[in-house]
Amino acid sequence: MPEGAAVGRILATVLSTGKRHMNHGGEDACATGYGLAAGGGCSRIIRLMPTRIPIVLDCDPGHDDALAIMLALARPELELLAVTTVAGNASLEATTRNALRVLTLLERTDVPVAAGSSAPLVRPLHVAANVHGASGLDGADLPEPAVLVRPEHAIELIRSVVERSSGPVTLVPTGPLTNIALLIRTYPRLLDRVERICLMGGAVGEGNVTASAEFNIWVDPEAASIVFDAGRPLTMIGLDVTHQAIVTAADAGRLAALGTRTGRVFADLLQFFGRFHAERYGWDGSPIHDAVAVAHLAVPGLVETEMCRVDIETASELTRGRTVADQRGLSGRPPNAEIGLRIDRTRFVELLVEAVARFP
Ligand code: BDR
Ligand code: CA
Question: Residue 21: inside a domain, yes or no?
Fold first, then answer.
């Protein structure tokens, strides 16, 4: 079956009877929506109406953030309402410029971009230039931004798109959680209109910036603590699952072989990103962490998850930013997070290749 994520999200409205039921359709139906006149003597008209998941991507591009933006735009199950940026992989100025360059590359400058926090809530900023290069997105020839960043702060853009959305919006943070924590503290009532927070960050097992902690959570653990305690449904796509989501050099070759500008740029980005992972882990390829959070929303079932209590370590320096996942329920406290554990790598790579192929 083609990507089944559209399954269950296509609302078939039987106009003649006024009844509604869920129709199991393929992604093309979801992408375009269309009308069907049933044959065989049946005169009822069935209209298939797509219901896409409205999302806001809050990111720090970043090689894998760039792929997450691309995937969010490509998947017909998702509607990218806005991109907001935060300091993380690089300075806020750099991550914002990178977001604008990626949207320019993808010819989607209609998606509004606003910059948010230039530093964590209470700690100094640490960037990941060793992973992503000085620009945050080294290794490829990206176009100059064809649009300007919006004048308002990221949390104001998120507030306005959430308030204007006809349905609840899903937040997809793929950088430090500073902006999302500020949003929660500034506009707590807005949370009623937030369907879910599906974030890339954390690890049940080994970290990647320290033995204890993953980068996004380690950079701003106080913000992460606010977000995990916000009381909204939350998915943690951590290293346990993203380290299985590796795009190899051969996979990157498939992007280059598309013969498109977008394919070339992403192949080059992957080659640069791969150097760090070859040196650190000896891997042939890179985990595309942030795109897993997007893929999980678009294709339910792609990532295997379980519910669990997760708390963030903010007091200790040794274990700063550890996502303490109580998988056995030892604390007796109710779960506050769905955590990603496993992913079908081959299917994930197919999603990315198919997605890149949709762009010029
Ligand atoms: C996370 O850290 C960043 O370097 C990546 O963009 C990703 O969001 C992985 O730990
Ligand atoms: Ca990121």
Answer: no
- Residue 208 CA: nearest ligand 1 atom is 10
Mean pLDDT, to the nearest integer, of 164-186? 98
Ligand nearest to the CA of 208: 1
Q: Specify the residue with its C-alpha closest to ligand 1, atom 10.
A: 215
Return the ligand 1 atom nearest residue 200 CA: 8
Ion ligand 2: residue ranges with CB closer than 5 A:
60, 62, 65, 174-175, 290
What is the bridge-based pairing of β-strands 194-200 and 234-237?
A: parallel
Q: What is the pLDDT of residue 47?
A: 58
Q: What is the pLDDT of residues 204-229, one digit of tens each?
A: 999 999 999 999 999 999 999 999 99
Pocket of ligand 1 (CB under 6 A): 62, 64-65, 89, 128, 131, 174-175, 200, 208, 214-216, 289-290
Indicate whether 35 belongs to any domain. no
Examine residue 62 and say whether the peptide bond preceding it is cis (omega within 30 degrees of 0): yes
Active site residues: 289
**Total domains present in the chain:** 1
Which of 59, 60, 206, 288 has most ligand 1 atoms within 8 Å of CB, for mutation? Answer: 60
Please tell me the distance from the alpha carbon of residue 239 to that of residue 208, in angstroms, as a whole number: 8
The reply to whether 18 falls in a domain is no
CATH (domain of 302): 3.90.245.10
Q: Judge whether 201 lies within some domain.
A: yes
Q: Are strands 303-312 and 323-326 parallel, antiparallel or unpaired?
A: antiparallel
The region, left, alpha or beta by phi > 0 then psi within -120 to 50, assigned to residue 292 is alpha
In DSSP terms, which residues pair with 308 in a beta bridge?
337
CB 241 within 8 A of CB 205: no
With CA atoms as reference, report the closest residue to 87 among 77, 99, 76.
Answer: 99
The whole domain housing 86 covers: 52-356
- The alpha carbon of 14 and the centre of ligand 1 are apart by a number of angstroms equal to 45
Angle between helices 345-356 and 289-298 (to 10 degrees): 90
Residue 19 has a pLDDT of: 30
